[in-house]
Amino acid sequence: MVAQKITSLQAMVDANNPFGAPITHARVQELTDWMWTSDPMLRHIYNVAAWNDVHPLGVFSAAKANYVTRISPAVVLVNKKGLPGQFHHEGSTLNSGYILIGETGDNKSLVLKSASGIVPPYVEPFTGATGQGVVKAYNKLFTPTTDEDGNEIENPEPHLQWYTRSFLWLSNEFKNVSAEFERAGSRTADMVRELLMGELSGMKNSDGQRNGVLPALLYRYASLWIGTPTMLSHLMSLYEDGDPQRHNFAPVANDPDHPLVPPTSYPTFSRKIHPVENVGQIPVGISSGTWDGFPTKEPYNDLYRPDPVWVHWSPAMVTEVPQLQAEVRSRNKALFPDYANWTEEDQARKLERDVRSHLIFTTIKDAAVTTFLLGDVDPRNTKTDVYISDRAWRIAKACAQVTEGTLAGVFEAAKWSARKEEKAEGGKRGRTNRVAKVVEDETAETELGEANDLVLKVLARKRAKSPDTFMSSREVQQGCRGVTSAAAKTVLNNGLKTAVPIGGVDTPVLSIESGTGGYRATDALMRSPAIQDYLDTAVPGWDRTLFAPPAASHYQTLAAAAAANGEAS
């Protein structure tokens, strides 16, 4: 698994930053300061954030995530051309993801509490699961065996039983979610992508306990995840699939050089939280049940779809969105590009296109949610049509620039984390390789020592039986069964370097017949006590006298006596 993990991060480690330059506190202030005085709700969000000493953008994003769960799945965006369709499933979902970035000690939990005080989510948040676990929290697939009267059903069919149509996946610490992205074989990343896009999601197979399928555009999903930049390495490694940029990013901590000004008492807000009526919202205080034409806690199989409520673009969007889309399309290389002949510039342009295309759609959805949250009432609003406001679009564009700059910063932090992880894994592998090399060398040395001893014994036995006979290399190796021929050959090739100490001098133990290249044990080896003890057992009755040392000369005898008496010879 580790090897796969390193491989999945390698592209990100080697890549240039596709999101541009990381954003600074000063730039965030420049982009968003005007917002907090533009609307009573936004001013209230600022006051709550200042009271708790957290970033107002973080509270704003968390409030939007909570609010998304209160928008009916029947509320859908117009298509990418800005046009409504005839049926509900022709639209695009408002399902949204928000990621808050903060380091340890940045009061991340206060952001969640502050936002829930402004607008609570529709249902109790789901705090940790795989993608499949989230799907199962919506509904389950089951097969009833009896009807309402208790009579047995002759041909039972599987049905969906819904628990809720709306859901908030909350993660106070991104570690659990990140572990799912990292886990080998996990489909969590794919399922999160499906949930954010409102597509068919889940699984249906032979495992009845895990079966669960969400039909497209029949559910509302929002995610609110909080984590440090380095926690998001594995999510950021999916940037080419658009996964990070499908989320809205916001900071948790304030700029220490630009402190907020808190009110003198805890801020309150008297305006209705849901001022845009009759467009598929779930009022605060309404629990899971039947709302807006969607039956819940009931089994059914007809995939009932209520009449759609279309969310239209604002006047400014009608002009600007097509321009943004055209700019993205201009980065296309060709309809069917020859990737093999692409230059690095071509690849960079395509990646920039992919990144920007996802950010555009994320910004449009954020503008719609902001319109609902702020209660921007357009005179054209009806029960079947709602219009995004130009002000919400302007706010969403500012938040999108913060998102893009934050993505750039998180990307760099994630690259650093991936490099660190890769370095640690490389060190671990290096240590493993070094240990393996030591073991390998020790094994080879042991094997060579065993071959050396056996070669010497084979040659000694042969000479004990036939004192004047040499042995070929092949004959020696055949006699050394039990050790590798390579080790025996190494001993033979280095035989003259192998010696035994005799009289304090290393004496060669092999001699080579110069004419034939044959091998035999030397007299010195045959006279060594260890070999003689071995031969007494291996070759009973061998003639030890054939290898007796020659008699000492008269001068050698005198020199030995003088040395024993400490005299000069």
- How many distinct helices? 17
Largest sheet: 4 strands, parallel
**Helix content range of the residues, please?**
40-55%
Structural class: alpha/beta
How would you write the strand order of the largest sheet? Answer: 5-8-2-9
Q: Between the first and last Cα atoms, what is the distance in angstroms?
A: 76 Å
Overall shape: elongated
**Percent of residues in beta strands:** 5-15%
Average predicted confidence as pLDDT: 77
- Rg value: 40 Å
* Low-pLDDT segments, ≥5 res: 1-7, 274-280, 282-293, 295-300, 501-505
Number of strand segments: 16
Features:
569 residues; alpha/beta; 4-stranded parallel β-sheet; elongated; disordered N terminus
Describe the structure.
- The chain is an alpha/beta fold.
- Helix content is 44%, strand content 11%.
- The protein has helices at 2-14, 25-32, 40-52, 56-68, 108-118, 131-138, 175-182, 188-197, 233-236, 315-329, 344-374, 390-465, 473-479, 485-493, 523-527, 529-538, 554-565, and strands at 75-77, 96-101, 139-142, 159-162, 166-171, 201-203, 212-214, 220-227, 247-251, 299-300, 309-312, 385-387, 499-502, 505-508, 510-512, 519-521.
- The chain has a 4-stranded parallel beta sheet, with helices on both faces. Strands 1-11-12 form a 3-stranded parallel beta sheet, covered by helices on one side.
- Helix 3 runs antiparallel to helix 5 (108-118), helix 4 (56-68) crosses helix 5 and helix 11 (344-374) packs across helix 12.
- The longest helix is centred in the last third of the chain and has 76 residues, at 390-465.
- The radius of gyration is 40 Å and the shape is elongated.
